[in-house]
């Protein structure tokens, strides 16, 4: 039986810029980096605080996201937090713009959106215990 999500994979236009963003700004830990010579591609494994992972890839000449924000496929990647205001302040300190905080009409949880260096839509979702 499926037990949950193991990882989400992202393709970065500049692997070094994306590593800095996910490691230095979001605070995630890089646990492995592999250069795949036959593909001229990097694979970087990033550990999230809950034990799940992001896989970041670099592929030369990969196309940009076709439209924003409603392209088919992955709509956004959501990260949970217990203090959305603290995380927003941290992001803004690092030059990351966040949308206005909204409230989910079904759960009453607060959330906002921001982007990674390649424009991937990311969400902060405040858990209210």
From TrEMBL:
Q: Which UniProt keywords apply?
A: Metal-binding, Transferase
One Pfam family name is: Glyoxalase
What sequence ranges are listed for the domain VOC? Answer: 4-127
Gene name as annotated:
fosB
Superkingdom of source: Bacteria
What SUPFAM superfamilies does this protein's entry cite?
Glyoxalase/Bleomycin resistance protein/Dihydroxybiphenyl dioxygenase
Name of this chain's protein: Metallothiol transferase FosB
Bilayer-crossing regions = none
């Amino acid at each position: 039986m499926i037990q949950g999500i193991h990882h989400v994979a992202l393709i970065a236009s500049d692997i070094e810029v994306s590593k800095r963003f996910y490691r230095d700004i979001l605070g995630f830990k890089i646990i492995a980096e592999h250069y795949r010579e036959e593909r001229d591609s990097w694979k970087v494994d990033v550990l999230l605080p809950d034990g799940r992972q992001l896989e970041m890839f670099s592929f030369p000449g990969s196309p940009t996201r076709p439209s924003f924000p409603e392209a088919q496929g992955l709509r956004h990647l959501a990260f949970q937090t217990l203090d959305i205001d603290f995380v927003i302040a941290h992001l803004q300190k690092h030059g990351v713009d966040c949308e206005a905080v909204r409230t989910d009409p079904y759960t009453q949880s607060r959330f906002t959106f921001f982007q990674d260096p390649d424009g991937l839509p990311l969400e902060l979702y405040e858990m209210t215990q």
